[in-house]
Design a protein that fits this description.
Layout (H helix, E strand, L loop, with lengths): L6 H26 L7 H37 L14 H6 L7 H19 L1
Helix pairs in contact: 1-2
């Protein structure tokens, strides 16, 4: 059940990719700035902010991978088709998450499985 990606969908994915890349670059530039602080409280605050920035970078890198995967998947199997079950992904979901390649049910199942695996590793 392959669905050809429409021009607006392709444009939305490309815009999302470009926006994510700009945001990543801005955050990386922020980390490169050398901060000079004299007060120990300022150092602690700066370290916390840098950790938060690094966490955002990791999140955006994952999002960028998802966007690029969705673009590749659109060429192979079609856009808006769940790569797991083959059902059509709700258009509203695609509007909110243009990079998604899973329907809601498969995404929830995937997250449940990931949590189970994480729990098993921590035991």
């Amino acid at each position: 059940m392959s669905k050809k990606i429409t021009k607006p969908q392709q444009t939305a994915l490309q815009k999302e990719r470009e926006s994510t890349m700009r945001e990543l670059q801005n955050l990386r530039d922020t980390l490169r700035i050398k901060v000079e602080v004299e007060d120990i409280d300022e150092v602690a605050t700066e370290l916390i902010e840098r950790d938060q920035t690094q966490a955002l970078i990791i999140t955006l890198e994952e999002k960028l991978k998802d966007i690029e995967h969705a673009m590749e998947q659109a060429e192979v199997a079609g856009y808006g088709v769940c790569e797991r079950c083959g059902k059509t992904i709700d258009p509203e979901r695609l509007e909110i998450f243009p990079e998604t390649t899973l329907c809601v049910e498969c995404k929830l199942e995937s997250e449940r499985m990931a949590r189970r695996q994480q729990l098993q590793r921590s035991i």
